[in-house]
Amino acid sequence: MPNNSEEKKTQFEETREYRNLRRRRNGLKLELNAHLKFIQAYTEQPKSYQLINIRLEQVNEIINEFHRIQCQLEEMDTRDIDFHTSERIEFNEAACEVKALLMSVAECDARHSLEHSQSNTTNMSESMRLPAVPAPTFDGDLQNWSSFRDSFDAMFHDNKTLANVQKLHYLKSCLIGSAREVIKNITTTGDNYQRAYEALIARYENKSLTIQSHIRSLLDTPRVKVASTVELRNLHHHVISHIKALEALNQPIGEWDAWLVTLVCSRMDNVTAGEWQLRQQTRELPKFTDLETFLANRVSAYEVGDFERPMDGPTVTPKYVNHAPRQFAGRQNQYKSNSHDAKAFFTKNSGSRSMKCVLCAEPHGIYACDQFLRMPVPERKVIVNKFKLCFNCLNYGHQVASCNFSGCPRCGKRHNSKLHVDVSSDDSNCTSKQNETQSTSEQNTVLHARGSTVQTSTMSPIILATALIYVDDAYGKSHCCRAVLDSGSQLNFISSSCAQRLQLSKTNVSVSISGVGSMSSSTVRLLPCTISALCNDYQLKVEFYSLPIITEKLPSQVFDISQLNIPFNVKSELADPQFHIPAPVDILLGAELFYDIFLGERLQLSKYICLHRTKLGWILTGKGFESPLDQSKMTMLSTTTFNNSALSLFTSTVNIKLTNEEIRAEEHFNTNVKRIENGRFQVRLPLCADTKLLEGSQQMAKRRFFNLERRLSKDSALSQQYKSFMEEYLELDHMETVETSTSKPSYYLPHHPVFKAGSSTTKVRVVFDGSAVAPSGHSLNDILLKGPKVQPDISRILWRFRIHQVAITADIAKMYRQVVIASEDRDLQRIFYRSSPDELLKEYRLKTVTYGTKSASFLSTRCLVQIAKECSDMSIKRMTLQDFYVDDLISGGSTEDQCFTFYDKLQALLDSAGHRCLMILVNLKPLLQVIFLLEGIQCCHRNQICRLFL
């Protein structure tokens, strides 16, 4: 019984489903019938064409749905096949009829719409009276033949309404000079037109001669005698017009950089050629496109200067004044300054007006402007920046790099003497006295440092407590600064120059301070920042107040420390190893920190000199050894009162910050960086332009690869090393085969070998050329952001390296290739490669950060910084941030145990991101042996790579 009930239930469910399908099929028949009735009663109306297309789509959907349901019904009911077959045939016939009717109506509507549109266009063109197009002319110059023939064909030769005799008449009227002689003797009849036309083609349709003609014109390019707008524009136009013509004739212009650059440079005037050469930063041959851009920019610069040039009347040579008028003994006539020297940029002869001052609109240069000269130096710099003037000569049209005038006569640097800042001179004091007369209801006081000289017979230098500390800037990067410890100060101070270097933000809190002799001043509080010690893990967040200068260099003179018996273990932990050498002071740490950092341990070196142990390291204070001096520089503070507007000049100094491009690269990295399953970093290429600019690079990359292949075939050893490198690249899954084509924009990287003779691992490295230019004139590197420098200068790393008692160096293996590129960007890193010419040429896609691309260094080092930021151990974090130069670790510690701990923790940190330190070298053999044992390095290999830093 249970089995029978289950069978009935199943049969009932199938029957209900069957009926539902039949009901749906009947509904589809009714929908199709409705479309048939619509088309039978169809009359044209607005938007009818769109309605027909919509109904066609609906009919297609009905047909597809019907066949789906019909198949299900036939599978469920196999007893009545004939009935289902007739249903299918009947529906198909009806559907075909409806679809055919709809398509025919749609065709008629489309044709009618097109005719209507053409009619409107014809009526519009008939109603417009266009100007007559002049007939083209041809004088026999091969370079003009192509354009003449195209124009003549369009106007006369292909005009079906003209008789041949008319065409011949027009042809003769269009020819002048030597071209007319070719058909001069041909009689003007209809039968002779084709003969005359073909005679011209036979004479001038010669691609080889046309190419030679353009090249001869390039070789005969006239030389620019004196740089001017007209001369340089003519040179630029002459060269580019022939280059474009040769490109149109399918000549490989992209491979002609060598002789094109040489030719154009030989035709430039001496000044322009010299400026072009100064712009070359490498010894590689520059590209012609770079030279073309340089010429175009020079023309634009001269055009800006010509904007104020008078249209009539003679001109005199432009005169520039960099510094105050001077006369040199014995050569007064040659160097004598006069009133004309004060003109700005372009000047006219007597009776003409000169260019107006950008500040006061008076007829003089800005360097002669009273309003400009009354400003403090910081505000002058703001004005020069605002109007894009040269910092060296205060004129238009160029920048410091291309300025021909000498530097500042006071310091020798490349700036105008009116922009010179001398902190220790009395200039600032004089300026402040001028501003004192502008009294306001509310005033602030600012400290000024002044120098004076005291005559002495002997002087014993006083040693103040100084320390080197790390201070984090606004971006978390640490900088080494010199601090003096002062228990008599209630606040912590930082010099304005150091605050600018660290890019520390100011608050709107202003504080009045008073010093010795009741001198008062005011200062601005900065946002808190972190300081830390060089030799240990101590760190603290500190609020600083900004002052123009803390003090003069400390100590006041160099003194001999050979008489000081400083213990060896203390010497390696000195807070300031160069305490005896005068150096600038960036920071003053006051009483808030003074007693907190002292640990109480004291070591007396002599009667007057003592060492104190602090959290920053050992510091030395006391009275130095006497030494004879003729003069000793003493420092004192004076106060000058400014009104609020004058004080703002000191607080609104422009900070040196990241460029917009570097900020964009940093933001792009932070937005797109992530860790993948194996812990490695995945990043995206920081693009700054559309990738469509890179289309068509396949042929260029293929050509470069075939050249490489020919080179490798001549050197079997190099070929084997190259093959091994690429096979390793593939085995490590750093590249993948491109199996199918994609519609995504792609770029193909050429590659070539680079030799590393000093390498103990890889003698040959394959480097990819991200600067290879695609047909559009752009390369991958052109559309990539370079990114900021995120690691300290090598000089700072080496300076810290020298103070370590135990030295350790290492190298991160294949650091660039440990960072994965997101799949969305990998098609921009395609290459061609095969291990043998007998194999098929394959396409590969590089999956990691690639040598030779513009952003590679930033992406890899920025990931290393990111590893450090995620580290909780401050000592390892600091080592990673401050002791790596690209992929090289240059560090150390005080003891063998400390170094081993550093190594162990650092290796674990790097392992978490797929990085691995190799080539570990230390200057202690026992420690080296332990590390080799842990790393599994064999003894024989150990002797080969062991280096001791003595």
UniProtKB/TrEMBL annotation:
Residues 423-445 are annotated as: Disordered. Residues 426-445 have a biased composition (Polar residues). It holds the Pfam family DUF1759. InterPro entries: DNA/RNA_pol_sf, DUF1759, Peptidase_aspartic_dom_sf, Rev_trsase/Diguanyl_cyclase. One of its GO terms (biological process) is DNA biosynthetic process. The lineage of its organism: Eukaryota, Metazoa, Ecdysozoa, Arthropoda, Hexapoda. It comes from Sipha flava (yellow sugarcane aphid). SUPFAM superfamilies: DNA/RNA polymerases. This is Uncharacterized protein LOC112681547.
